[in-house]
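RECORD TYPE: inverse folding
INPUT: structure tokens
STRUCTURE:
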């Protein structure tokens, strides 16, 4: 397996605001995600998990230090395609069907509507969601909607999937289905997976465990249960 990181943070820090109201969300952080890694990112609410995922996904800039994607290229090359993000809450566009939502990232690149629909249906089929293709987001349960969001994340054949508490609003059963979908997709495609979670039983299914507290990241822990 290649040892060129997909993403590498070097002294990367993020402070929101300035002066007396400044919040240090992420203290200077060194970390890297290698191809095929399966990493759980644990930590209490407000510890900086989302901030770190946003930096690694190129959705936000560090206020100090650097974030680079050595195995992928520049930040402009990240999306749509190599890096995919799954968020915690509802993220599907209400007026679009499930298949249209899943195909949406392809609308940003040069893929025609017929091929986009075919690829969306294939992504849905891989997650066992074919029956939902023509439904609207309002007709889905929370767990179904989150698995559709996973299908949408997979449409660009990502090499790095970043999921921010994807099971945070789901019960244990539906949360397990979403984590299954992410892990199976990563297994099938070889993509690296970083999942922020509060849930030790979710984290136990990953190979590595990073822990955050007060904006400080520890990457020393091997598995979450150790
Ligand atoms: N846009 C923002 N503006 C100001 N403070 C923020 C913003 N986003 C996050 N924070 C603060 O940064 C800290 C880390 O937040 P976050 O990364 O969302 O943590 P987590 O995802 O672990 O809950 C918290 O204190 C939070 O209140
Ligand atoms: Mg968060």
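DESIGNED SEQUENCE:
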């Amino acid at each position: 397996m290649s040892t060129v990181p997909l993403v590498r943070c070097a002294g990367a820090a993020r402070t929101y605001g300035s002066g007396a109201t400044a919040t240090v969300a992420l203290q200077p952080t060194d970390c890297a995600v290698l191809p095929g890694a399966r990493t759980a990112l644990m930590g209490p609410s407000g510890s900086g998990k989302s901030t770190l995922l946003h930096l690694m996904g190129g959705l936000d800039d560090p206020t100090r230090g650097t974030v680079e994607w050595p195995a992928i290229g520049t930040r402009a090359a990240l999306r749509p395609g190599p890096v995919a993000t799954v968020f915690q809450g509802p993220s599907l566009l209400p007026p679009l069907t499930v298949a249209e939502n899943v195909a949406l990232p392809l609308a940003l690149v040069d893929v025609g509507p017929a091929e986009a629909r075919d690829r969306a249906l294939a992504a849905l089929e891989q997650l066992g969601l074919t029956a939902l293709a023509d439904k609207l987001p309002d007709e889905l349960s929370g767990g179904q909607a989150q698995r559709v969001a996973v299908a949408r994340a997979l449409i660009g054949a990502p090499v790095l999937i970043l999921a921010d508490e994807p099971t945070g609003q789901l019960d244990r059963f539906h949360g397990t289905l979403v984590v299954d979908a992410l892990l199976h997709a990563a297994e099938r495609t070889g993509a690296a997976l970083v999942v922020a979670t509060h849930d030790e039983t979710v984290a136990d299914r990953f190979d590595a465990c990073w822990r955050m507290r007060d904006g400080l990241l520890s990457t020393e822990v091997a598995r979450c249960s150790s």
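NOTES: The pocket of adenosine-5'-diphosphate (ligand 1) is lined by residues 16-17, 23, 25, 43, 45-51 (CB under 6 Å).
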